[in-house]
Design brief:
The chain is α/β, with parallel strands linked by helices and 531 residues long. The strands form two sheets. Strands 3, 4, 5, 6, 7 and 8 form a six-stranded mixed beta sheet that branches. Strands 2-1-11-10-9 form a five-stranded antiparallel beta sheet, sandwiched between helices. One of its GO terms (biological process) is peptidoglycan metabolic process. It holds the Pfam family Peptidase_S13. GO terms for molecular function: serine-type carboxypeptidase activity. Belongs to the peptidase S13 family.
Length: 531
């Protein structure tokens, strides 16, 4: 198979080759050691599809438990080219050859965000930091506890640029053993590292194959058409949806169904009653988050962006319904100006569109620190848990899910799913426990928590960080609010061991300096032969 060299690869080649030279020895050693054990784990952990389950959908889950583990042992130094998002195209080829799926490339192209119709086929993630994932025994040794990590981390975490409060924990991802703790039980403001808890709770409650469905329903015996929001903030009104559910497709299929019934004029309304309570986050109007509602298109962004802060529509549901009405008119259906109304239980569904699977949504949420997705996923967690789908009920549902998984929730307090609320409190011990749980071979449904973490120097919120030293070796969720800096993820050490770490700080006055200090701490772990 011939793969053309991309312009992005030509530009990135010098940097990638420097990274490759730095990580080749340690990952080659780890790969050789872990290969036999991964083969055993793959056979042991492969899920069995239940009767009636779609085979292709089950391959996605199986991919998280088997191909994800096998690809985790691959070496990041394999020849390019690289995708513009930082993923090696060689990984895609290898996955196709193995006829397996798993991970994602964390981009938003039409071939990278799953498919709205049919089963998902995400590409494998750049996986160097997943070396040894899920291992319980064998040649890859656990890191012995002792003073080595303290000697490395204590001076770095004592840096005054980190503010007046700091807490940290490091654990062995293969055993869960705590290797280092500095106030590891202290509950501090976690900022966006809260999304790790959101991800674990949502995947546990709903499963990785769950999809969010938006529908159009017709009230019987009338011309009343209702656009029913399914709580999918990735629903897109754009021509190129990047694999997300398409509002245009929903309008086209609805128009076809209406014409079959002899209807060419409808009274249009929209239903947002899937969620409860106020939609405005406690932070108020903010470019980091749209008002939380069960119906919106493109996260209510008004500037054409796909990630990051952006101006938002004041009424996302009304804007989405207006777009739906325009699309209906384009297909020969006249629609009144839409208004809010709840669909009755008798309303007949005419057409539906569904999001990519939850596994892909979780990966996007973590890679891009997507606040809109985070708030949606905690509300779906609440619905699956019998809780009221508002800020309070969703937060209670997350805490209950984590407790049911046996995670150390003492001291933790959740007030949203995104981490934008400064009242949130999480401990470093809980953050590392979440990562350890996600690596558990008995919990393949949680694997997207790890595959969604940004890769240092390549993807998401870590794209421009770790450009030297630990690029490709650190994979972590970032967290930043005024005076708050956090980092939690996984790292491959000098001798090929895999650690989970969490650093929480508050009181910093220079956010860039604090961020750099945390990056130095994670880099030190990567270069640590502390065992």
């Amino acid at each position: 198979m011939s793969v053309p060299e991309l312009r992005s690869w030509r530009a990135a080649r010098p940097h990638v080759m420097r990274v490759a030279g730095a990580v080749r020895p340690r990952l080659a050693r780890a790969t050789a050691a872990v290969r036999p054990r991964i083969a055993r784990l793959a056979r042991a952990t492969a899920p069995r599809p239940a009767p009636g389950t779609r085979p292709r959908t089950w391959r996605y889950t199986a991919g998280a438990a088997t191909a994800g583990l096998a690809l985790a042992a691959g070496v990041v130094t394999a020849a390019g080219p690289w995708h513009a998002t930082g993923q090696r195209t060689a990984e895609r080829d290898r996955a196709a050859a193995l006829e397996r799926t798993g991970g994602a490339d964390h981009g938003y192209g039409s071939d990278s965000f799953g498919t709205a119709a049919g089963a998902p086929r995400p590409a494998p993630s750049a996986a160097s930091v997943l070396t040894g994932l899920g291992a319980a025994a064998g040649p890859v040794r656990a890191v012995p506890a002792g003073t080595g990590l303290a000697r490395v981390l204590d001076p770095l975490l004592d840096d005054p640029v980190l503010g007046d409060r700091r807490a940290a924990a490091v654990a062995d991802l293969t055993t869960g053993e705590r290797l280092y703790g500095a106030d590891a039980g202290a509950a501090l403001t976690p900022a966006s590292t809260t999304k790790l808890a959101t991800a674990v709770a949502a995947l546990s409650a709903l499963g990785p194959d769950h999809r969010l469905t938006t529908r159009a329903a017709l009230e019987p015996g009338t011309g009343n058409l209702v656009l029913v929001g399914g709580g999918d903030p990735t629903l897109s009104a754009r021509e190129d949806t990047g694999g997300a559910a398409s509002l245009r497709t929903l309008a086209r299929e609805t128009a076809e169904a209406l014409k079959k019934r002899g209807l060419r004029r409808v009274t249009l309304s929209y239903d947002t009653t899937l969620y409860a309570g106020p939609g405005m986050h406690p932070i108020g109007v903010n470019d980091n988050l749209a008002p939380v509602t069960a119906l919106m298109a493109d996260e209510a962004r008004t500037d054409g962006s796909t990630s990051g802060p952006a101006p938002r529509a004041a009424d996302p549901a009304a804007d989405a319904a207006d777009a739906f009405a325009r699309f209906l008119r384009g297909h020969g259906i006249e629609a009144t100006a839409p208004g809010p109304a709840e669909a009755t239980g008798r309303a007949r569904t005419l057409a539906t569109v569904s999001s990519p699977p939850l596994a892909a949504l979780v990966e996007r949420m973590l890679t891009e620190s997507d606040n809109d997705l985070a708030e949606a996923l905690v509300r779906h967690t609440a619905l699956a848990s019998g809780k009221r789908p508002d800020f309070a009920g969703a937060s209670a549902a997350v805490a209950a899910r984590l407790k049911s998984l046996g995670l150390p929730v003492a001291g933790a307090s959740f007030h949203d799913g995104s981490g934008l609320d400064r009242a949130d409190r999480v401990t470093p011990g809980l953050l590392t426990a979440l990562l350890v749980k996600a690596a558990d071979p008995a919990r393949p449904e949680l694997r997207p928590v790890l595959t969604g973490l940004p890769v240092a120097g390549f993807t998401g919120t870590l794209t421009s960080r770790y450009t030297e030293g630990a690029a490709g070796l650190v994979r972590a969720k970032t967290g930043t609010l005024t005076g708050v800096n956090a980092l939690a993820g996984t790292v491959v050490t000098e001798d090929g061991r895999l650690l989970a770490f969490a650093f929480l700080t508050s009181g910093a006055t220079d956010p860039q300096a604090a961020q750099a200090a945390l990056d130095r701490a994670a880099t030190a772990l990567a270069h640590c032969g502390c065992g």
